[in-house]
Amino acid sequence: MNSEVIASTANKARQLNAEEIAEIEHEMTLYPDKKAVGLEALKIVQKHQGWVSDESLLAIAKYLDLPAADLEGVATFFNLVYRQPVGENVILFCDSVSCWIMGCDNMKEHIQNTLGIGFGETSEDGKFTLIPVPCLGGCDRAPVMMVGEELHHNLTPDAIDEIVSKVRS
Predict the structure, then answer these.
(1) What is the C-alpha to C-alpha distance for residues 133 and 99, in angstroms, rounded to an integer?
(2) What's the whole-model pTM score?
(3) Would you kindly state where each structural domain of the chain is located, as residue ranges?
(4) What is the pLDDT of residue 11?
(5) Which tens digits make up the pLDDT trace of 21-30?
(6) Is 104 within 8 Å of 143 (Cβ atoms)?
(7) Which strands form 145-147's sheet, in the order they lie side by side?
(8) Helix-helix angle 38-49:18-28, to 10 degrees
């Protein structure tokens, strides 16, 4: 979001809901200043809305009295803050060196063919968004991916098919 877009959408900030505000207020008790709460506020809104729209980002900036451009910088730096809609289940697919050595390229190809999407895309049924990440901390059981909050390791095509089938049902 560049400064022209921010200026032209300044009146489009939505209202944060009571639950979002309560959670942000709680986070404010844990940090020394409002600027430090920016990332947590983005994550809170994402938890409630599924992603962080421009209107939501502006609402957070207004509530925390921060420049929207600063908050946008935080949002775009962290790849787990979604600035566009995502599927019901976000698949974080590890493409680290350890996973690569253990065959993640073949697993990536299999999951992309299975879901009919590439990295950064959402399946036609809206169930899955596939996002590459540099590491999920499961190097000893590579290749790995995370679906929602569940880590799946030692991936094989059959394991991927089972995971996808289970989530779809």
Answers:
(1) 11
(2) 0.81
(3) 3-77, 89-168
(4) 57
(5) 999 999 999 9
(6) yes
(7) 128-133, 89-94, 145-147, 150-152
(8) 150
The first and second tokens of residue 69, run together, are: 């451009």
Q: What is the pLDDT of residues 83-116, one digit of tens each?
A: 999 999 999 999 999 999 999 999 999 999 999 9
CATH, domain 89-168, list 3.30.930.10, 3.40.30.10, 3.40.50.720, 3.30.2350.10: 3.40.30.10
Place of tokens 């959670």: 23
Q: How confident is the model at residue 1 (pLDDT cuts 50, 70, 90)?
A: low
* CA dist., res. 77 & res. 82, Å (int): 11
Which residues in 143-162 are b (16+ Cβ under 10 Å) and which e? bbbbbeeeebbebeeebbee
Pairing of β 145-147 and β 89-94: antiparallel
Of 11, 62, 71, the C-alpha closest to 39 is 71
Residue 84 tokens read as 């566009």
Q: Are 105 and 155 in contact (CB under 8 A)?
A: no
Unique residue bearing structure tokens 């994402």 = 46
